[in-house]
Amino acid sequence: MPATLTALVLLSAAVAGAWIGITRITTGAWPDFLRSGREAAASLTWNSPTVITAALITALLGLILLLAALLPGQRSTVRLNEPQDRRAGHSEAVLTRRGLSRIAAALVDRTDGVDRSSVRTSAKRLEVGVHTPLHDAGDLGNRLEESLDTKMKDLGVTPKPVVRVRVGTTRD
Prior knowledge:
The protein is of the alpha+beta class and 172 residues long. It has helices spanning 2-27, 35-42, 49-70, 97-109, 140-155, and strands spanning 77-80, 93-96, 116-121, 125-132, 157-158, 162-169. The strands form two sheets. The chain has a three-stranded antiparallel sheet with strand order 2-1-5. It has a three-stranded mixed sheet with strand order 3-4-6, with helices on one face. The longest helix has 26 residues, at 2-27. It is elongated and about 85 Å long.
């Protein structure tokens, strides 16, 4: 979203600059709405506080845009271990968090005693909410945690997320 907004602002500035330049070339005069700004800019010198402030703000904005372009954002994927027969460093196997949530939800929904489930995956956690029609869930939560831990190990998720399972009863 920030990149899209920045692109739209820069695009509108470019379109306005092109329109003003084309107007100047075709009519031989600057548009009238620029008259007051042009007269104020003509009276400025390079060492005036207004010019220095504008230069600092522009440089700061440029630095912010440069950092936004170079620094990575939050990852929306989880890494998977590479197969042993692949050469390290040439590729990376990943799975989206949403995909990991779907795999976990499919595993949980196939378990006996589970009515419905919801799974939320973050960078370090896998949170599962389970509803069961059973009056006494017993060790259902522990069995699901062990099952999900085993599945994360089998998939090769690196680093393995902390699995939390909350079990609630479905009230009809």
